[in-house]
Amino acid sequence: MASSHTVLMRLVASAYSIAQKAGVIVRRVIAEGDLGIVEKTSATDLQTKADRLAQMSICSSLARKFPKLTIIGEEDLPAEDVDQELIEDGQWDEILKQPCPSQYSAIKEEDLVVWVDPLDGTKEYTEGLLDNVTVLIGIAYEGKAIAGVINQPYYNYQAGPDAVLGRTIWGVLGLGAFGFQLKEVPVGKHIVTTTRSHSNKLVTDCVTAMNPDDVLRVGGAGNKIIQLIEGKASAYVFASPGCKKWDTCAPEVILHAVGGKLTDIHGNDLHYNKEVKHMNSAGVLATLRNYDYYASRVPESVKKALVP
Ligand code: AMP
Ligand code: MG
Ligand code: MG
Q: 246 exposed, middle or buried (CB, 10 Å; 0-12, 13-18, 19+)?
């Protein structure tokens, strides 16, 4: 019998369980103690065994269930048979109880592009800043990010033995975002969150121009968007290339689903069709509220240096 659920909602429900499984893998690699670190383009651009195993798990699990999807993962991995132990076949039934927004009800599998960051915040992961780490699965339709899942494997890891370790946040445009408590920074306070591992003069010039009350330097694009929706930061400012489509796709959906805005540093929307270049060459500017304040303060010199 054909499923009564739409392709999009089935995909989000599966992505939820698949991201959870990836989170388990991310924790297991640390517990086993061999990170298997490889330098990609530089000493701050790393890949670990957890990035590799989590991507294999996510991409193979998605492709088995949804063979017509376009799936783009961060890591360049050799094509090889994936161990059955890495496959997640489950789906999160709570998501299937939610209605699919009508504008997405006729979407077919082959129309969707999935952007996978199996482990966002790898540098911080290798340094033991474990709650900076997220697993990101973003879903795009007609070039627009419309649904996403963020697993945070080490959420609560310092909260004591009774706290539940890890959480999963999910969202669909037109439906909302779930798995966290929405909170805002007090009105009039400007707290900027930005990179801790990939800074340069452009990044700091742009942050300074925001005239912030406080600056948080933390790892991960997913982690910084979580700071925005939980009232820890009011703007995510990254005036540099380096961040890629798999970093922004899922986080952008969660932010947009609760009324926030993510663009490049010029104010342009990001596009997620399969042909798009992976690099967000013109940086990232994201806020939950007050977008215009931050956009108006980006210096012309920074804009000139960052070509979309
Ligand atoms: P960060 O805020 O430094 O954690 O960066 C957010 C995401 O963009 C992470 O996935 C980083 O790996 C990536 N990223 C940012 N800048 C660079 C860079 N210069 N080289 C490689 N990856 C970067
Ligand atoms: Mg990343
Ligand atoms: Mg990554």
A: buried
- List, in sequence order, every residue forming a beta bridge with 72; answer none if it has no partner: 115
Looking at the DSSP bridge assignments, the partners of residue 183 are 230
DSSP state of 221: H
How far, CA to CA in Å, does 143 sit from each of 111, 112, 229, 270, 275? 10, 9, 24, 8, 9
Report the interhelical angle of 49-65 vs 7-32 (nearest 10°): 150
pLDDT in tens, the chain (308 residues): 457 999 999 999 999 999 999 999 999 999 999 999 999 999 999 999 999 999 999 999 999 999 999 999 999 998 888 999 999 999 999 999 999 999 999 999 999 999 999 999 999 999 999 999 999 999 999 999 999 999 999 999 999 889 999 999 999 999 999 999 999 999 999 999 999 999 999 999 999 999 999 999 999 999 999 999 999 999 999 999 999 999 999 999 999 999 999 999 999 999 999 999 999 999 999 999 999 999 999 999 999 999 98
> SS3 of 15, please?
helix
Strand ranges for the chain from DSSP E: 38-42, 45-47, 70-73, 112-120, 134-141, 144-152, 167-172, 176-178, 191-194, 214-217, 235-238, 261-263, 284-287
Beta carbons within 10 angstroms of residue 268's beta carbon: 11
Which tokens hold the place of 184?
């805002």
CA 122 – CA 134 distance, rounded (Å): 9
Ligand 3 centroid–CA 51 distance in Å is 7
Q: What residues sit around ligand 3, an ion, with C-beta below 5 angstroms?
A: 74, 117, 119-120
Please pick, among 6, 48, 122, 194, the residue that the annotation labels catalytic. Answer: 122
45 CB less than 6 Å from ligand 1? yes
H helix intervals, 33-149: 49-65, 93-96, 122-126
